Amino acid sequence: MAAAGSQTTIVPTDAELLQAQADLWRHSLYYLTSMALKCAVELHIPTAIHNLGGAASLPDLVTSLSLPESKLPFLRRLMRLLVTSGIFASDNNTEVETYRLNPLSWLLVEGVEAENHTYQQCFVLGTVSRHYVEAALSLADWFKKDLPVPVPSPFEELHGVPLLHEDTPKLDPELDRIVHEGVAAHDNLAIGTIIRECNDIFKGLQSLTDCCGGNGTTARGIVKAFPGIKCTVLDLPKVIEKAPADDAVNYVAGDMFDSIPPAQAVMLKLVLHFWDDEDCVKILKQCRKAIPSREQGGKVIIIDIVIGHSMDPTMYEAQLLFDMLMMVNTRGRQRSEDDWREIVTKAGFSDYKIVKKIGGRGIIEVYP
Ligand SMILES: C[S@@+](CC[C@H](N)C(=O)[O-])C[C@H]1O[C@@H](n2cnc3c(N)ncnc32)[C@H](O)[C@@H]1O
């Protein structure tokens, strides 16, 4: 600490002061971008633009959304923010201002039949739901409380139940439905890309257990691309009960903390970020029991965020925001390479390799 009298006082220049104030506006008001996005999703603006042929003027939108004409100037202001935030595109060089979809708003169009499309409406509605926002508002109070370990999330502490738990519907059945649908939409997005990018990782495998594989969407995609792999999906009984009858994939109902069906490789895709370090070590120890030695091709495949500041700044920011989402609402976290190394070593694995980066995620092979 600097000695009294020698502290460096920041004296901003006039330009720095004005910029600092503008930055303060931005950071204090970013929640309004989230709320503007929520509004666009609730009004179904992306679907309306899609149905209007992929481009729409403001009067077209007002008519198609059945809004009062008096709202046109307000809609212009909403769309201006959403375009500036990268949620829609606009054509500036036409006489009539026109709004278009971009890849982000395309994900918010309902009813698209395309390989890499899953409708992200529930992901947005879950993350900006009253319950998530209230949990975030309680963050400072939560920090001050000396809570027993394992520390409940602000969501659990405030609402009395954890998220994605069998008791969550008692808090609000609609929230529980939206969160489940949102997680499924999020996790199923870009499966085709992941399978293509993971070609080397799956090639030559004889068997694979997709641990926490849900209704088998990923496993079916893997078997389609690699018919030689005998694929098993492990999930909780209530999930497996609803899995489609499918000869291509073998479904096992069980608890990963008890045992995991043996296979040459076990995959944990978007699973570990939901759990704290202690539980991750327990899960990884079960994975280790389920696979053969490294010489026999045994490995665990982890697909999850690998936080890294060497990335593109917006990708890094997205990773950190996703980590805050986990911190506020779950006991889980997003992990850096150091964090991953620590838990795989604690679980008794000898080595690991980040074999690929896909967007903000990494594919980590872990060897016994
Ligand atoms: C976030 S999803 C996993 C996403 C999936 N791997 C994917 O990429 O689409 C979490 C899944 O873990 C399952 N699950 C939670 N606890 C489990 C446990 N103890 N044993 C087995 N599955 C569990 C849930 O039922 C849910 O299907």
**Hey, roughly how much beta strand do the residues contain?**
15-25%
- Total domain modules: 3
Element-by-element helix/strand order: HHHEHHEEHHHHHHHHHEHEHEEHEHEHEE
CATH fold assignment of the largest domain: Rossmann fold
Query: Class by helix and strand content?
Result: alpha/beta
CATH H-tier superfamily of the largest domain: Vaccinia Virus protein VP39
Total beta strand runs: 11
Q: What small molecules are bound in this structure?
A: S-adenosylmethionine
List the total number of helices: 19
- Give the end-to-end Cα distance, rounded to a whole number of Å: 46 Å
Instruction: Report the CATH architecture of the largest domain.
Output: 3-Layer(aba) Sandwich
Could you report the average pLDDT, rounded to the nearest whole number?
A: 94
Please bin the fraction of helical residues.
40-55%
Task: Specify the CATH class of the largest domain.
Answer: Alpha Beta
> In terms of per-residue confidence, which ranges show pLDDT below 50 for 5 or more consecutive residues?
none
The 3D shape can be described as: globular
CA gyration radius, whole angstroms = 23 Å
Characterize the largest beta sheet: strand count, sense, and whether it forms a barrel: 8 strands, mixed
Pfam families: Dimerisation, Methyltransf_2
Protein name: O-methyltransferase 2
Family: Belongs to the class I-like SAM-binding methyltransferase superfamily. Cation-independent O-methyltransferase family. COMT subfamily.
GO molecular function: O-methyltransferase activity; protein dimerization activity
